[in-house]
Design a protein that fits this description.
Blueprint: H1 9-26, H2 35-55, H3 67-79
Helix pairs in contact: 1-3, 2-3
Length: about 80
């Protein structure tokens, strides 16, 4: 599932489970495969996501959170350095 497809609580829940499944199968592809590293990246990416939206010219306001913003942040924390 792509974060762009996350519009409801239920879709976010499915997205999170897909992230978990991806971690179990592809942990070597994750920059932050441990809970400690993932949470640290999650906190940092929560701030950085605004730059991501600006860079990609996406008209999304991360200060008006919605289910998609949460999904973008979770996915971003997977690889954020």
């Amino acid at each position: 599932m792509n974060p762009k497809e996350v519009n409801t609580r239920e879709e976010l829940s499915r997205f999170i489970l897909q992230l978990r499944d991806d971690l179990l199968v592809n942990s070597d592809d994750w920059e932050n495969p441990t809970l400690e590293r993932f949470l640290e990246a999650l906190a940092a990416y929560t701030i950085a996501v605004q730059g991501y939206y600006r860079f990609h010219k996406m008209d999304i306001d991360p200060d008006a959170p919605n289910w998609r913003v949460f999904a973008d942040i979770l996915k971003g924390a997977r690889d954020y350095e």
